[in-house]
Amino acid sequence: MFQWRLPQAVCVLSVCACLLLAYEDDIEVNYADTYYNEITEGETPQPTPSSAPCSSSDLTKWDKMFSMLENSQMRENMLLQYADEIVKVEMGSLRGEMLRSVAQYGGSCGMAVETVGRRMASQLEFRIRETLERLKIGGQTSAAAGNSVENSDNLEPMLQQLLSAARTQSSRLTKLETGCFSSAGAGMGRNTKTGFQIAESGGAGHLEQAVTSHEVALDGVLAALQQTREELEEVVGSLRQRYLPAGCDMALLFPMRSRRIYTSVIPEVPLSISSFTICMWLKPTTVSNKTVLFSYGNRRNPYEIQLLLGQNSALFTIGGEAHLVEARGVVKPGEWIHLCGAWSSQQGLATLWADGKKVASTPGVAEGHLIPAGGSLQLGQERNGCCPQSPSSGSGLEGFEGGFDPKLAFAGKMTGVNMWDRVLSEEQISQLASLKGQGCEQRGNMVAWGMTEMVPHGGAQFIY
Fold first, then answer.
1. φ, ψ dihedrals at 445, nearest 5°
2. Looking at the domain covering 251-387+399-463, what would its CATH class be?
3. Rounded distance between C-alpha atoms, residue 142 and residue 146, angstroms
4. What predicted TM-score, i.e. pTM, was given to this entire model?
5. Three-class DSSP category at 246
6. Which of 217, 223, 350, 356 has the fewest CB within 10 Å, making it most exposed?
7. Which distant-in-sequence residues (6+ apart) come within 8 Å of 116 by Cβ?
8. Per-residue pLDDT tens for 270-281?
9. Which sequence spans correspond to the domains of the chain?
10. Cα–Cα distance between 279 and 446 in angstroms, integer?
């Protein structure tokens, strides 16, 4: 049995050995580390060149331009932020200085010192007068009785009372000085003395010196504050001139004096009226001898209504230049002014208003006259200034062929143009003329600013 199993075991062992040798031949084990980015010895790495962003072939000239614009915008934002920070720091330091000045010199210390000084002087004067009166009475009594000892005995207690009162007032004044001037510096603190020193060594002189120095300091602060206030008022005034007045949100701009620049107004209601009020805000650039602001007329009479400017005056006519109302010294080029012209046919009273104040009034102007309908209404020019006939055709085209008279043209800004078929009251005109008010919200029933059709011609245009 054993002999039969032995050959089988040997055969199995031989087969296993053959398989093991064959498996070792097929598998090759590599124990070395693998590095994909390994740099071998002797090789020097070469940098890979990269193209500049603005010189890359992929960027067009528009890309370069946009890149430059972005860079400039970033620089502008940085500069604006830096300027804003500087302004904030300067304003903060100015506010701190003003607060320190107010804390140092403000309050009622100066007034309190002055009041106490006056009270002290009045009390001392009263006591001295009382003492003198008593001395006079005592002297007369002693002279009549022939007794001088009694007079000296009465004088001593009176002088003691006067000295005691002076010491009491000096002590109170010293406490007040210490409380008021302790924060004003060492120089002012050196002037403070005790009550007995002031009473015995000329307290009135030291009090006057302390009050004078305090008044000088307060005068300096007040002068600086007044100068700052004036500068701020100038800045605010210049800023107001850049914006539209009375809450108006748009204006008519007449950029220059030209024969083709004007604005025609087309009211919805015919102007057949016996009384009216015209109001407007204007800011003239230049003013000639006759500058037309508001003009209404027809072929028969081009001068039915006119609101004009002179060199430094405002003029108002009804029915022709024979009925003229003039106010001098009310117009300044480059500044906003509110003008109103009112007229009533029943009384024949024509009134001119400037900045809410009545500047001229004339009775008997076109009394009983009626403004006819069917005319043309224009801003910045007059009907009679247009239009000479063209030599080629024999007839003129209004505002184009011959044009208006450039000497009559208005140059500047105009806003808040309104017209009523009645005479407004003084209170209503004052409200319209308020620079900080909302006068543009009050519109006329004949011509209403922002509602009545107004057609600019030439270079005239609406600005906002």
1. -95, -10
2. mainly beta
3. 5
4. 0.50
5. coil
6. 223
7. 172, 173, 176
8. 889 999 999 999
9. 109-223, 251-387+399-463
10. 12
